[in-house]
Amino acid sequence: MAVHEVTFPVTDEREIRKLRAGDEVVAQGHIIGIRDRTQIRIFDQGVEPPMDLRGAFLLHTAPGVRKLEDGRYEKVCIGTTTSARMVRFTEPLGARYGVRAICGKGGFPDEAIEPMREHGMVYFAIVGGAAALETTQIEEIEEVAWEELMPECLWKFRVKDFGPLTVGIDSHGNSLYHDVQAAAEKKLEELYARL
Amino acid sequence: MTVDTVTDLQHTVEDAAAHLYVWALKDIPQDLRDALADAAGKETSVPGRRVLSTILRNVEVADDEKNLVCQDTGIAVYTCRVGEHFPLHPARIYEALRDGTARATIEHPLRSNAVHTITRENTGPNIGHRLPIVHWEFVPDWDGLDVKCIPKGSGSENMSFLKMCVPADGVKGIKQFVLESIVGAGGKPCPPGIVGVGIGGSADYALYLAKEAIARPIGTRNPDPVVAQLEDELFELLNETGIGPMGLGGDVTVLNCHVEHADTHMTLNPVAVNYQCWAARRATAHVAADGSVEFDREF
What are the DSSP calls for A27-39, one per residue? Predict the structure, then answer.
């Protein structure tokens, strides 16, 4: 299992295609925070996002922040939420906006595998709950859009050594979640027989 | 006891609640730290080891930076053991817990998660209609109050399950349901955590007991030896599923399994599962009748 450093947004699809399920990744550059209500606004209410998502790394988050007097936001505690609730947005994020990576916790179900293969996207597994560490890897909150959705706004973070992340689903049709679940279901049959 | 003294006691409980909420979020208990270190020593899968070493690093960073371990400040759940002679009525204890939760949320500041369940509009600083949630136990011949704060994250709370097994399903049915629940939950509840199981009673009470189970110090055993044996067996079975840390595959799927039980109707066999994530946050205080407070007196 290889270890990679990838800077976002990516401009070359090969940067994503070289990643394989199980590999370790550390991200640099800029990442965009997004959550349920943000994506409901984009896709269900048809509002164009005021940030460029091409080549982007999206993080499933609703950060804890403090608003400063000049209107900027300072980080308090930034962590990651469960991804599975938002899986239905994978296809349009890749097809319409050219998003390259989606990062969250707990994984995506199998319906994400095909859009990720087709559009050259990956799912990064972060360690859920490890927010104290994650907060230190976010250098600055550079931009916030849709503040009225607080804390489910569109956030632009500058990061340094963001990770370690595990490639949970790669762009070649492989998913660790699928494999682990299939093996566990087989194991359950054996365990039930022993009860 | 004078009115002023009672008011002072209400303030004392409010201060304790405010302290407990923030403390629980920042400083996870020693028994949990030990269990996580132990898990890291046992895990053999590459992604699983990566997850556990990141968790241990995160706990250290939270200590060093005095930051929250996890950004999800949860819903505030309290367990109270109220002595018969404690001078503050539970109605006022509830007010104190609610006001303390709100104050901690505003002053720190903490992310406020509380919303109206239909409109989804925020209802206040982690308070609202029937929030926080309090479990009560009343103790005869005693004048103290024990309070435990359990900020409960939504990722793990969403992985809660109930099945009304039939008596003929027996203990085998209970085990099967717990196993299928945890395999189905996969990486979503932030494994490896504490699996709380409530059995018996009624449907609602089984779920209540499952929550009581996750709030116990890790690895403690039910005083009923038959139930304690079930805890040991489930713990072993769950770690054979291979779900692993954060659902990425591995040897350590759960840190432990706790079971609470109630006697039930001869035709009932309810089984409830409540999951507590690896950051199983928990902080306790004891308030004496004279208003003195001792923190971390575990119960």
Answer: EEEEEEEE-HHHH
* C-beta atoms surrounding B236 within 10 Å: 10
The two tokens of residue B115 are 């919303």
Suggest the residue from A26, A77, A157 to mutate for an interface test with chain B (most B CBs closer than 10 A). A77
Report pTM. 0.94
Among B residues 131-150, those touching chain A with beta carbons less than 8 Å apart: none
Close Cβ partners of B190 (under 8 Å, ≥ 6 residues apart) = A105, A106, A128, A129, B153, B155, B156, B246, B277, B278, B279
CATH number for domain A3-194, candidates 3.20.130.10, 3.40.50.1460, 3.30.70.1560, 3.10.450.50: 3.20.130.10
CA distance B109 to chain A (A): 7
Pairwise CA distance, residues B229 & A80, whole Å? 36
Q: How far is B176 from chain A (nearest CA, A)?
A: 7
Which of A36, A124, A180, A185 to mutate against chain B (most B CBs within 10 Å)?
A180
- The CATH number for B3-26+69-153+281-295, chosen from 3.30.1330, 3.30.390, 3.30.420, 3.30.530, is 3.30.1330
Q: Which residue has the tokens 């099967």?
A: B176
Interface of B with A in 80-119 (CB under 8 A): 108-111
* Contact check, Cβ <8 Å, B71/A179: no
Encode chain B (299 residues) as per-residue pLDDT tens digits: 676 788 899 999 999 999 999 999 999 999 999 999 999 999 999 999 999 999 999 999 999 999 999 999 999 999 999 999 999 999 999 999 999 999 999 999 898 899 999 998 899 999 999 999 999 999 999 999 999 999 999 999 999 999 999 999 999 999 999 999 999 999 999 999 999 999 999 999 999 999 999 999 999 999 999 999 999 999 999 999 999 999 999 999 999 999 999 999 999 999 999 999 999 999 999 999 999 999 987 87
Q: Where are the domains of chain B?
A: 3-26+69-153+281-295, 155-276
Q: Which residues of B touch A167 (CB under 8 A)?
A: none
Cβ-defined contact of B186 to A107 (cutoff 8 Å): yes
In a mutagenesis test of the A interface, which of B248, B277, B281 is the best target, namely the one with the most A β-carbons within 10 Å? B248
Our CA dihedral for B197, B198, B203, B208, rounded to 10 degrees, sits at -100
Nearest-CA distance A127 → chain B (Å):
6
CB A61 within 8 A of CB A35: yes
B271 min Cα distance to partner chain A (Å): 17
Q: What tokens appear for B244 in the block?
A: 């692993």
